[in-house]
Amino acid sequence: MLHQPHIPRRTFLRGLGTAVAVPWLESALPRSAWAAAGATPAAPLRLAFLYIPNGAHMQAWTPEKEGADFRLTPTLEPLVSVREKLLVLTGLTADKARPNGDGAGDHARSAAAFLTGAQAEKTDGKGIRAGVSVDQLAAEFLGKDTRFPSLVVGCEAGRQAGDCDSGYSCAYSNNISWQSPTMPAGKEVNPRALFDRLFGSGGSAAREESRARRDQQQKSILDLVRGDARRLRRQLGKDDAHKLDEYLDGVREIERRIDQPVDDDLFVDGQMTRPSGIPTDYVKHVRLMGDLLTLAFQTNQTRVATMMLANEGSTKTYPNIGVREGHHDLSHHQNKAEKQAKIAEINRFHVKQLAYVLERLDSIREGDGTLLDNTMVVYGSGISDGNQHNHDNLPVLLAGGKNAGFSGGRHIRFPDETPLMNLYLRMLHIAGVDIGSIGDSTGELEGFDA
Length: 450
Fold this sequence. Notes:
Layout: E1 12-15, E2 18-21, H1 31-37, E3 46-51, H2 58-61, E4 86-93, H3 106-114, H4 134-142, E5 151-154, E6 163-165, E7 168-169, H5 170-173, E8 178-180, E9 183-184, H6 191-199, H7 204-217, H8 226-233, H9 238-258, E10 267-268, E11 271-272, H10 282-298, E12 304-308, H11 327-331, H12 337-362, E13 365-366, E14 369-370, E15 375-380, E16 396-400, E17 410-419, H13 420-430
């Protein structure tokens, strides 16, 4: 590869209102990086945090055995293909999701504390306060080298004001990412808007013109950058050229899925309107957002991302798996076996969506491994059993991170009351973020790296 001309790391294929970033290519690495590494230089490290609401049916979640000899439970079985890159973490606690004198409101506190480790101020109006979340702390350090310091997405819209849980503002229930103690980062729930953000350039007028022209002429965004892509490809070696082709095919496929009509949005008050881009099919929605975050990581447009599969306290139903009752109502199962079984089905369904994202990350070759090997992915909830509203022994998974020193394929049980923030502190330090503590952390979590 050293004989090839150096390709700038932050290369974009450009067209009208369009900037398609290229993926991590060995051709884009300077000769000094090869010389220093003595082999394929290391790819950048990414962090992702995925949140599920209303806890889990822990009996169907938690493996019986510890260590490498554990068996995936019925809830976790969809992760079998990435088992060796997976850590099941038991015993972690979100103490600041507990009342601590503030009474009811566990759902709101759970989301607010999940990435902050801070006790949310009980208010349904002005004066909201939580803490700076781990993703935003990471973004402050890691985002200097990327187009977007972080990406914050979700699959369920929600209000940012009003009372959503026993006197707690909706801002708590509907956000896990906080830019400051008094300002949630907000989240993008529209795949079309996220796609335009990732692949747009210039001002909003140029992006709108680009989108309108593509809609009118039924063209792909790649049609606008075909000339740049052709010129770049001629400069690449065989492996990188193949990688570029695979990436561009992926972009086109995601664009095709986003541009499919959303039937429920075609008619408003009898007038034809442009579809919103939010699929009515929840699976399509989750997987589109996961694919877009994967593209953002692949092209180094961001190294930090969060995703809420649904808002905390969500009443969403899941008729596609035969669950027509609201998720939140079912979580108050009163130890009834039928309700617990349905909660377990919802949990397994969410884990299937996680498996899809992890498999996508693991399918992309990068350096000496895969994109998943260069990404630390946390998946979990701020509640364990929804009926009790308890916040210890949380359902938490850690995937990927092989090239960060993680040794997967294990179930690790930590001492009771181990702060969840200790995990995040360790992750921040691995990522090179020099910080002494976060939220209610008491020190780095140990035992999950090689």
